[in-house]
Design goal:
CATH architecture of chain B: Up-down Bundle
Order of helices and strands of chain A: HHHHHHHHHHHHHHEH
Number of helices of chain A: 15
Distance between the termini of chain A: 12 Å
Largest interface: A-B, 55 and 32 residues
Shape of chain B: elongated
CATH superfamily of chain B: Phosphate transport system protein phou homolog 2, domain 2
Distance between the termini of chain B: 43 Å
Low-confidence stretches of chain A: none
Mean pLDDT of chain B: 91
Order of helices and strands of chain B: HHHHEHHHHH
Radius of gyration of chain A: 22 Å
Oligomer: heterodimer
Structural class of chain A: mainly alpha
Number of helices of chain B: 9
Number of domains of chain B: 1
Largest sheet of chain B: none
Strand content of chain B: under 5%
Number of strands of chain B: 1
Amino acid sequence: MTLFAEYGQILIILACVFGLFMAWGVGANDVANAMGTSVGSRALTVKQAILIAMVFEFAGAYLAGGEVTSTIRKGIIDPGILTEAPELLVYGMLSALLAAGTWLLIASMMGWPVSTTHSIVGAIVGFAAVGISPDAVNWGKVGKIVASWVVSPVLAGSISYMLFRSVQNLILTRHDPFARAKKIIPIYMFAVGFLISMVTMLKGLKHIFKDADISMSFGECALVAVGIGLVVSAIGSVLLKRVERDEEAEKDNRFASVEKVFAVLMVFTACAMAFAHGSNDVANAVGPLAAVVSVVKSGTVEAKSIMPSWILLLGGVGIMLGLATYGFKVMGTIGRKITELTPSRGFAAELGAAATVVLASATGLPISTTHTLVGAVLGVGLARGIAALNLRVIGTIFMSWLVTLPAGAGLAIVFFFFFKGIFS
Amino acid sequence: MAFGKTIFNLFGKSPISPLQTHMSLVIACEEKLPDFLEASIANDWEKAEEIFSAISKKEDQADEMKRQLRLQLPKSLFMPLDRGDLLDLLSLQDRIANRTKDIAGLMLGRKMSIPEPLHQQMLGFVASSIEAGRQALKAINELDELLEVGFSGKEVDFVEKMIGELDHLENKTDQFEQDIRHQLFKLEQDLPPIDAIFLYQIIDMIGELADLAEGVGGRLQLLLAR
């Protein structure tokens, strides 16, 4: 293709810039939602939360982000239709990135809660359906994705509900909750370690294993995951030993010391949450970039091309930049606002959301971490665990859905014809 | 830029600690009543007026707190407690402060003197009524622990027991009330009729303080029974 020979470099650089911008936005905005619960429940300071986010978001994006990236890259659009004109896919993905980025910027300035995931998916469907042809969209897959947006908050809510009920029954209502907490919490820690490593090995590490020529059966994966879970809970137990009863605080609230134990657990769930977020949100932000690079490099719309890992790295770097430049401020404000969330609730919400997001990442479904977390928090609320929840937020979220999908799509269509005009 | 709005908007302000603060204000107001009574028995109306204005100030604060709390409880709030029961509880608590102010106000306005033979019994009666109020405050102060366990398990039994104790205190106050009325009945011939009528009214109002405290306990029970 002469177009790619002539402009290939520029196209890739453009895509990288847009992709980095998206990842920056995710880092600046979304991460605060994901990590805000930890800061809000006083389990972590803002600095610690940022540090954890940096490490685990990056790890999540790099180790487990592959499936989601590939859905965005080649799952939504039917590659068969575009074999004749691969440049359309390049324009489209560029405009999708630019559209989603622009929309996120506008929404953030106006203070609307919008989802990166929804903007990207809306933008891709928009340019493909209008700019190319409605047949170019893999509607079956899109339907699945949209369904997952409904299912994920519900699933996260159910998991969180059950987690919190188990905390009530196993720890809080017992005779000596403090001692019970120290005994039971390592089990939750094990679950965190097991879940994350299991999903990562089964799905996320595929591309790395392939490079290194390693193959593992399901049983082997499970065994390793159990090992990692045990290591995690052993580390946790050591940390838990250091937690002491706070008699002074107990005068005011008899559960003050118990919450201190849960605060330790929350450090672990915060890591899981950051990992989950990285695996899904970062991945779907850089997915279009991956599509552009693979088409320009190979000159064809080849569904099987291997995705270079530097793309996920770039996403990880972008999110870290976002955290460093803006995340601090957002996290600080959020942390101060959520004062009613105790670590025992925060953990249940975070773990429920993280589990759901990681599962979605493994199946390649791009979902919204923020909305999932909202579902999880409501789950804890249903277990009579949170003093006051403002249900109007659900209305706002629903509205932001209704607006974001057409807005992302509309902008992408405009940009698509713009790029098409410039380059051809 | 205003980033990251979603999650924190989800969390409303908890009504529990304001409710507890309100109740402790109310009880602090009520606890000034014995001093007031002693001042009136000693016929020291200057001091009584001082105490009355302190009572009045506490009552104002409680009123303001009630208004604030009502404003922060919109219908869209999802809580582990029933909103209606919570608001009822709040207004019952508030009525304890109002009643206290009424009692002090009426006694001060008429410079009411309590007949000598009733002095000791009257002080005991007021103390008993206030004891019920304190017990109600204790039960209200368990609300945050109740939230912590999600309103289930042993903690609920514990609070139930506290409410049982509260009922017991109210019964005791009723007993006092009956005795005093009986005494007053024997004395009323020798009193100016209007004074006697108002004395009956004051006794009634003091008894009502304990009834209100018992009502607070009852509302709390309703909050638990969901």
